[in-house]
Design a protein that fits this description.
171 residues; 2 domains
């Protein structure tokens, strides 16, 4: 059980799991796995009277749908996995990032909040998140997903480089 729930999966096993999930989602639910849409459900719960057009569209009519349960499962599953591997109840460690920069808690929170906000905005502008475009969009031969995936990769590499140069002091 430790191998399945605590240890990191090898890349090939994760790829197989995702590859099997894609057709199962289409077969049983006739939909793609939408992580960013699930976060939209949380926003709809927090701001039920929002006038944002996208937040009042069809995917958010039922706030407590399978996407809500999926996101909740990611949070609870991550917590349980961390606890069963012996990690502390609460940690502000983000690996090499926090080990290198040694910022206090407030700048860390602001940094990751800003990053999450930009990710959410990008997912809205791209009409889907990286997993939706890169896994489902490419699998169904969507040209827009190919363009989105290319730009995700380009700007992901550039952003990582800029962070290493400007925050970590070198490439």
């Amino acid at each position: 059980m430790k191998y399945l729930f605590v240890d990191l999966w090898p890349w090939w096993l994760g790829g197989i799991a995702i590859g099997v999930l894609v057709p199962l989602m289409y077969y049983f639910l006739n939909t793609a796995l939408g992580v960013s849409t699930g976060y939209g459900n949380f926003v709809k719960i927090i701001m039920p009277a929002s006038k944002l057009r996208w937040l009042n569209s069809n995917p958010y009519k039922n706030k407590y749908n399978w996407r809500f349960v999926f996101i909740l499962g990611m949070i609870v599953g991550g917590f349980l996995s961390a606890r069963s591997s012996g990690m502390p109840w609460l940690s502000d460690s983000m690996g090499i990032f926090t080990d290198t920069l040694k910022w206090s808690l407030v700048p860390n929170i602001l940094w990751f909040f800003a990053g999450g906000t930009l990710l959410g905005l990008g997912a809205r502008l791209a009409n889907g998140c990286t997993s939706g475009h890169s896994i489902h969009g490419l699998a169904t031969l969507q040209k827009s997903s190919l363009v989105a995936t290319v730009f995700f990769l380009i700007f992901g590499v550039l952003t990582t480089y800029w962070i290493r140069v400007f925050l970590f002091g070198g490439a």
